[in-house]
Specification:
Layout lengths: L10 E5 L6 E10 L4 E5 L5 E4 L4 E2 L9 H5 L2 H8 L18 H26 L5 H7 L12 H22 L4 H19 L17 H24 L20 H19 L4 E4 L10 E4 L1 H17 L6 H4 L1 H23 L16 H7 L6 E2 L2 E2 H28 L7 H19 L8 H4 L5 H14 L2 H8 L6 H30 L11 E3 L5 E3 L10 H14 L11 H25 L1 H9 L10
Antiparallel strand pairs: 1-2, 1-5, 2-3, 3-4, 6-7, 8-9, 10-11
Helix pairs in contact: 3-5, 7-11, 7-12, 7-16, 7-17, 8-11, 9-13, 11-16, 13-14, 13-16, 13-17, 14-17, 14-18, 14-19, 18-19, 19-20, 20-21
Length: about 625
């Protein structure tokens, strides 16, 4: 194994990926497996560099121009020349030496090269946008809009024409031509390729309380689901009224587990149907982009048709209500088995396919957070499939089963107004998620988190059985509300949905195409990664406006259940805690990723989720 050349904490000169520019960086760590140095630039940006892209500061010390510009023989011959000068030569005070003339030409050429290097950086919005300005001594702009880059390109066009003329009529050696061709080829590569991402290394900062915290969560998450379902069955679902534990044998039913397997298989078949468009996800650490088929909404339509056929043939859908606990246990067992399979297969996955947050080397932690980023069986992406299909569509089916159970148990000709509101609000949420399925490709779940127990249990158990808690509660604890109250709750839900959808659409459209004319009025802070941080629109109001809309909708889902018990408000309480924790994770990752640009964004947008509060 080769020994490392640079030590941790050493200040060296690192080449910016895709360019010929070197900047002062500090070595923070070294990966013995990938043989990469993690370095930190002055603005806080961290990248992984090869040893060949790093040089010591001593190698950048300037040499005297005379010693480098002329050979010893030429210097000795110059001493023997006559001091007399011809009439055409300038006076001594104005005369410039050959070396000085060459230095002047080199400086001029260097300035033109730096100008041409800046063009693809500024026009194409590439990684060195933040850094090259600072190190070249240029003033740093904190905000840009979509038209500013075009104006700058037009301003630089005359300089490029001057450069072309100078190069056409200048005298230079073939060696200089070769160097210029190498520089030009590197510039073309820099302008064409996407930003080089950091190759996944060992996870050093553990989240969720580390190994102990993740171990406790593996036990507490299933226990919480079972506790909530048992409480909803109680006549008095008070927190102090702990429900009696059911017999263990009553929690398992082979037929129920068969229904869970059939449901998962049916959704997988819908996922594999050749309908819907195929899109590319965000670039991976290797630069490769995975392809995803967007057909979740079609899967929902086909599922609705299948459920309609069952109801037509008098299938008792309220069977779900009578055996909901058994369904939850079977789904938990299936998610556990899936998690074990995912971790086992991840042990053979290549290093570049591991999740950046789930590669700690600790079994429990990696098992919980997910060791492999995008586990696939052929073209079947397991994480992407589970993210929206079985759990989210299953949530709607369970809600419908609760609605039918309420009508049967209470002998109602139509569902209660509270049940209608809960079903309608949550149906809108699910349909919106499936209609805008492509947006999930930019979320942290897809781009950062591996697929392990956390997402497997969350997608297949927590979402369908906890998110349907309000409908399950209303079956055993009917609540009557008036039409004016229902109208007020509906308005609240619409406000939350509008904030949630418009904020997400604004972010997704900007990420997909920052040059979209429809987004020309949006201002952003450029970053060293090539992405911009919006400081106008919803994202200039708070840092996570989509979270704000989510929380408002969660409150609207709970209000139809009344105020007799806190149990139906578990969802909104949990959701606030979840989003505050996720916001803290986002802050940490964005600080590492964007460096100084993120600090400027936080100064411009001080509130995280709740304006003037948090």
């Amino acid at each position: 194994m080769p020994s490392r050349k640079f030590a941790d904490g050493e200040v060296v000169m690192g080449r910016w990926p895709g360019s010929v520019l070197y900047y002062e960086v500090q070595v923070t760590s070294y990966d013995d497996v990938a043989h990469l140095y993690t370095v930190k630039y002055k603005d806080g940006t961290e990248l992984a560099l090869k040893e060949s892209d790093i040089r010591s500061q001593s190698s950048f010390k300037h040499r005297k121009s005379q010693s480098s510009s002329s050979s010893p023989s030429r210097r000795s011959s110059s001493r023997s020349r006559s001091r007399s000068r011809s009439p055409g030569r300038p006076a001594k005070g104005r005369r410039r030496s050959a070396s000085q003339s060459r230095e002047h030409k080199e400086d001029k050429k260097k300035t033109i090269q730096e100008t041409s290097l800046a063009l693809p950086v500024l026009v194409l919005f590439k990684p060195s946008e933040n850094n090259t300005k600072r190190y070249n001594g240029e003033p740093e702009s904190t905000e840009k809009n979509a038209t500013s880059c075009i104006i700058l390109e037009q301003k630089l066009k005359p300089d490029l024409e001057i450069k072309r003329v100078l190069e056409q009529y200048s005298l230079r050696s073939r060696k200089d031509d070769k160097k210029k061709e190498e520089i030009y080829s590197e510039k073309k590569t820099f302008a064409a390729v996407k930003p080089i991402e950091k190759v996944p290394t060992k996870t050093k900062e553990l989240e969720f309380g580390g190994r102990i915290g993740t171990f406790m969560l593996i036990l507490l998450l299933p226990a919480t689901v079972f506790y909530l379902l048992l409480m909803c069955k109680q006549e008095d679902p008070s927190l102090l009224n702990f429900p009696p534990l059911p017999a263990v044998e009553s929690l398992w039913d082979g037929r129920v587990f068969g229904v869970i397997l059939l449901w998962f298989f049916l959704q997988a078949v819908f996922y594999l149907l050749p309908i819907g468009k195929v899109v590319e996800g965000l670039p991976l650490s290797s630069g490769r982009k995975l392809q995803y088929r967007i057909n979740g909404f079609y899967a929902f339509i086909l599922t609705a048709a299948a459920v309609g056929v069952l109801l037509y043939f008098q299938f008792e859908l309220h069977y779900l209500y009578d055996h909901l606990m058994q369904f939850a246990v079977s789904a938990a067992a299936f998610s556990l088995a899936l998690s074990i399979y995912l971790y086992a297969r991840s042990l053979k996955a290549p290093e570049e396919e591991l999740a950046p947050g789930g590669n700690s080397g600790y079994f429990i932690y990696d098992f919980f957070t997910g060791h492999e980023l995008n586990p696939r069986v052929g073209s079947f992406d397991l994480k992407y499939f589970c993210e929206l299909r079985p759990g989210l569509i299953g949530w709607v089916v369970i809600n419908l089963a609760m609605l039918l159970a309420e009508m049967k148990i209470h002998n109602l000709s139509m569902p209660s107004l509270s049940m209608i509101l809960v079903n309608s609000f949550q149906l809108l949420y699910v349909v919106d998620a499936l209609w805008n399925e492509e947006a999930v490709l930019t979320t942290m779940d897809i781009t950062h988190d591996g697929f392990g127990f956390m997402l497997a249990f969350g997608d297949l158990v927590w979402v369908p059985f906890v998110y349907s808690l309000q409908a399950f509660y209303l079956v055993g604890h009917p609540t009557t509300i008036t039409w004016p109250v229902a109208a007020a709750i509906t308005v609240l839900n619409c406000i939350g949905y509008y904030i949630f959808r418009s904020a997400n659409s604004q972010k997704n459209n900007f990420r997909r195409n920052p040059a979209d004319p429809k987004l020309a009025n949006l201002k952003f802070i450029p970053t060293a990664t090539g992405k911009g941080l919006l400081v106008t629109g919803w994202w200039g109001f708070v840092r996570h406006p989509n979270y704000l809309g989510d929380i408002i909708m969660a409150l609207a889902w709970s209000l139809p259940c009344g105020f007799n018990h806190i149990l139906p408000y578990f969802y909104v309480i949990y959701f606030i805690c979840l989003l505050v924790h996720r916001e803290a994770r986002d802050e940490h990752h964005c600080k590492q990723k964007y460096g100084l640009a993120w600090e400027r964004y936080c100064q411009r947008v001080p509130y995280r989720i709740f304006p003037y509060i948090y």
